[in-house]
Specification:
The chain has 227 residues and is of the alpha+beta class. Helices cover 29% and strands 26% of the residues. The chain contains five helices and twelve strands. The strands form two sheets. The protein has a nine-stranded antiparallel beta sheet with strand order 5-4-6-12-11-10-9-8-7. The N and C termini lie far apart (59 Å).
Amino acid sequence: MLAHADARRNMRILLLVSFLVGAAAFGVSRLRDSAPQPNVEADVAGGHFSFPSAYARDAATASGGSADRLAFAVAFPDFSPLEPASALLTPRALTERDQRIVFITVSPPDEAIEPAERPSRLYARFLEGDVWSGPRGLIMRRFERGSPYELEQLYIAPPDGRTFFARCLTPHPAEKTPPGMCFSIFRIKSFDVELRFAPLLLQHWDTLNEGARDFIDRIGAGDDDKR
């Protein structure tokens, strides 16, 4: 029992550290490059994207061209480019900024399973039997201990999560909640779109879901033969 508890604690620490390091690295990179840049043109799996470089989360996305994936960071709720972190911001202001960050990754589709089918085909067998009420009408389910997702909770939009679902790291009162603790994914056109965001945004899941889809449409995702 003690060994299992230690393993869970170590896994939680590793997840939290990875989230925090990723967010911090992004903030530093934004501070280093805040000058206005022209639109970036990029292609992923036959689709073309055009976007201001301020949206790019990493150097590969900012450089454009042919890519395996594109990574963006936006500010909720308007999905505008994220304001650069500043040493002048108060700790409270930085926390509020972090809670509005949405990380968006666009990649070729996962051929193994349609994202909308993950709740029923992938996650269902690992869930406990109890059902709980979640934010803004979502249903919350806990994953079983010993499952691949034991440190997470599943939130689904009724009835089956096809409209929206999110896996979120189980909150712990003694730990800081970093951005990116919740994961969601959907397919639009021929791309899988992954979202990572703070649990606070679950209460706005419908706005988050619609805003992400509008963002992908706005930056011009499409098939090359339709341009």
